[in-house]
Here is the input.
Amino acid sequence: MKLDPNREFWNPKIELMSRDEIRQVQFKKLKKQLKYDYQNSPFYRERFHQAGIKPEDIRTWEDFQYVPTMTKDDQRWCQEESLQRFGHPYGMLACAPIEKIVRVSATSGTTGMPTLYTLTRHDVKVNRELHGRKLWRQGLRPGDRMLHAQALSMFTGGVPTCDAVQEYGVCIIPVGIEGGVGRVFQFIDLCKPHYIRCTPSIAEYIIQKSPEVLGKPASELGLKGVLCGGEPGPGIPEVAKRVREGFNVSQMRDHIGGTHNFHGYSCTVEPYPGMHLVSEDYCVLELLDPETQKPMEFREGRIGEMCYTYIDWEGTPLLRYRLGDSLQVHLDPCPCGDPRLRFRIIGRVDDMLIIKGVNLYPTALKNVVLGFAPRVTGELRIFLDAPGPRVQPPLKIQVEYGEGITLEDLPGLNKEMREKMHSLLRVTPEIEFVPPNTFERTTHKSKMIVKRYEERGSS
Ligand SMILES: [Zn+2]
Here is the structure.
């Protein structure tokens, strides 16, 4: 395929479709997929029978909600059951015959049996297409060199990502992070990449150590951009600023999606607008009400439990799969010109708090606070006097104000922030401002919730 490096989208025909058009494409593929799943997976067939439906009963989007949902535990059960019945872990769910499976990937999860993704040659092709769409929008062009410094091996963001990148003429330097950061430095020096793909913590570590290890600051490594994954980064203004300035690049973007069908990327619009979902013609996304588990209509800013279904997929086509993550969707047009739905993963459904019947996620609160940077640092804590999820109002939070803010500024900031929280989240917390750097910073996801009732119990 001859590619014009100046074109904006990898596959404009699909990527610039309106929401209505993409929904039609999805439904056509969905009907075919449901039939395929029913015919080829004993697990799905049984689930349909239990629900008293057949694939041909699904004639509208409304009907689709009667197809049972599944979780990671179901996936693990299928693997165990397959081992018993077929002597391999795939038979219950991997709908393609074993000889058609050409790749196996696994989640990076550390607890319990790894959950497997199997791909046929068709799926590998789809996967490359989805990576192509993301990376093109992230600015990579044939001739660029990208050093991959995330986990490699069969982790979904490892080998599959590298495979997809080289497919369209980008040179991949698959160092991986398993061999330590020393190796990463060695290959930066030797191969002179234009892009580095890593976690935000590794990016910051390279900036910190570069003068000592390479004898020059990271700003002189000649990078065009830093592509992050695995942890939040570009959405946190102070992290994004440190990484951009440290490497002297204009871009620090993040992405999601390895060897499955849920792929998104962030553009360079500021403030961080979430990630664009690039794979809707291969993945049906639903938002479920966390309490009733019924699908909710998509509206600007709406938050619900993420549930997805693979379409046009042969190996392990997950069907109404719930991972326990909460997602916020944005339908407003993004200034970058990408018309697609945007989303933010805002935490685990288990982290949800309920205040006067309103569902609130700590990350959603943090996103509002981040919108006030640099008047605030973005750090906050939520104090609970009793176990959740129900909280007796008002919700009590502490927010770090930014450098250069005086005490006289705080009442105005307080009012503005409470109004913003009320209008966006329908929650009006009691805010106490504290000086910058009051809260401990960690490279791990810091605990935003302080359980005061536990502290009392242990004292
Ligand atoms: Zn955008």
Summary: The CA atoms of residues 99 and 120 lie 9 Å apart.
